[in-house]
From TrEMBL:
<dbReference type="InterPro" id="IPR002729">
    <property type="entry name" value="CRISPR-assoc_Cas1"/>
</dbReference>
<keyword id="KW-0479">Metal-binding</keyword>
<feature type="binding site">
    <location>
        <position position="202"/>
    </location>
    <ligand>
        <name>Mn(2+)</name>
    </ligand>
</feature>
<keyword id="KW-0378">Hydrolase</keyword>
<keyword id="KW-0460">Magnesium</keyword>
<dbReference type="GO" id="GO:0016787">
    <property type="term" value="F:hydrolase activity"/>
</dbReference>
<dbReference type="GO" id="GO:0051607">
    <property type="term" value="P:defense response to virus"/>
</dbReference>
<protein>
    <recommendedName>
        <fullName>CRISPR-associated endonuclease Cas1</fullName>
        <ecNumber>3.1.-.-</ecNumber>
    </recommendedName>
</protein>
<dbReference type="GO" id="GO:0003677">
    <property type="term" value="F:DNA binding"/>
</dbReference>
<dbReference type="GO" id="GO:0046872">
    <property type="term" value="F:metal ion binding"/>
</dbReference>
<dbReference type="Pfam" id="PF01867">
    <property type="entry name" value="Cas_Cas1"/>
</dbReference>
<keyword id="KW-0540">Nuclease</keyword>
<feature type="binding site">
    <location>
        <position position="217"/>
    </location>
    <ligand>
        <name>Mn(2+)</name>
    </ligand>
</feature>
<comment type="subunit">
    <text>Homodimer, forms a heterotetramer with a Cas2 homodimer.</text>
</comment>
<keyword id="KW-0238">DNA-binding</keyword>
<dbReference type="GO" id="GO:0004519">
    <property type="term" value="F:endonuclease activity"/>
</dbReference>
<keyword id="KW-0051">Antiviral defense</keyword>
Length: 310
């Protein structure tokens, strides 16, 4: 039995939308003038409380004005985007170096070269092209990080990234991990007082958390991809945890629950912050990065230090 719409609102406020029944979330969306955005996908059901995630509870008007001003500054947007894309590529290279059975020197070298190109990209469109090339190189080597064997290894093979819908178990896990991370970032940005819908790299679009998608880039490899690799290699999910319908693949409820637990464990793991030098959880890192961005927008810090691990 579901806890009901009002109880679901309390649960959502405390621990997010996991575990909130679909019918209760729909009821909340209807009764809250669509502040609760209802999202459905082949990975399952997700909701994003736009009322909370967009920072409506924040009173920091100066920060919001500064964010809107920066979003119109082409030089700032390009500088910010270069930083997050360079860190994404560097973190992807680190993932391969740490987890690949035998990472090819040519692949690691190409990612290094692409990171250097990204740092000097003359425009956002050119940066998007460099990012896309790096993603193809990275995902071309991704299967080498998966340590399954025999029949299971075949189920968890990956020939490249695909989505909308994901067509194999690995891509289904990647899509779900990215959705969870985007939700956490959107909520964190709203708590800090930033507008998750107004980004600097990803272009604004109705209902799209563009700023969350900006910041997610540096965390995709080391948080989301890391969860997927660990969940497969450690047997957290198995081939029979997935179901196929049409050309799509999605987790069954039991498999989804196990993967959500794995994601939460990763978010609670400690890492040394490269700027401050102390160890904090990845969940706390999201907040620290959001607050650093806020300080940049307010003129208290010169440039945004995107998160990069070694």
């Amino acid at each position: 039995m579901s806890p009901g719409p009002l109880r679901s609102a309390e649960l959502a406020a405390r621990r997010g939308w996991r575990g909130v029944a679909r019918e209760d979330a729909v009821a909340l969306g209807v009764h809250c003038d669509e502040r609760f955005r209802i999202l459905t996908s082949t990975d399952g059901f997700e909701c994003l409380n736009l009322g909370r995630a967009t920072g409506l509870e924040s009173r920091n008007v100066e920060l919001r004005v500064a964010q809107h001003r920066a979003a119109s500054d082409e030089a700032f947007c390009l500088s910010f985007a270069r930083g997050v894309v360079v860190s994404k590529i560097k973190n992807a290279r680190t993932m391969l170096r740490r987890n690949h059975a035998a990472p090819e020197v040519a692949v690691l070298s190409e990612l290094d070269q692409l990171a250097r190109k990204a740092a000097e990209a003359p425009s956002l469109p050119s940066l998007l092209g460099i990012e896309g090339t790096a993603a193809r190189v990275y995902f071309g080597a991704f299967a080498g990080m998966l340590k399954g064997a025999g029949e299971a290894r075949g189920e968890f093979d990956l020939e490249g990234r695909n989505r909308r819908p994901p067509r194999d178990p690995v891509n289904a896990l990647l899509s779900l991990a990215y959705a969870l991370l985007a939700k956490d970032l959107a909520t964190t940005l709203g708590t800090v007082g930033l507008d998750p819908l107004l980004g600097f790299y990803h272009q604004p679009r109705f209902g799209r958390p563009a700023l969350a998608l900006d910041l997610i880039e540096e965390f995709r490899p080391i948080v989301a991809d890391s969860v997927v690799v660990a969940a497969i290699n450690n047997g957290v999910v198995a081939p029979d945890d997935f179901q196929r319908f049409g050309g799509a693949v999605a987790l069954r409820p039991a498999g989804r629950k196990k993967f959500l637990q794995a994601y939460e464990r990763r978010m609670d793991q400690l890492v040394t912050h490269p700027v401050f030098g102390y160890r904090i959880s990845y969940r706390r890192v999201l907040e620290v990065q959001a607050r650093l961005l806020a300080r940049v927008l307010l003129g208290e810090v010169e440039a945004y230090p995107s998160f990069r691990t070694r």
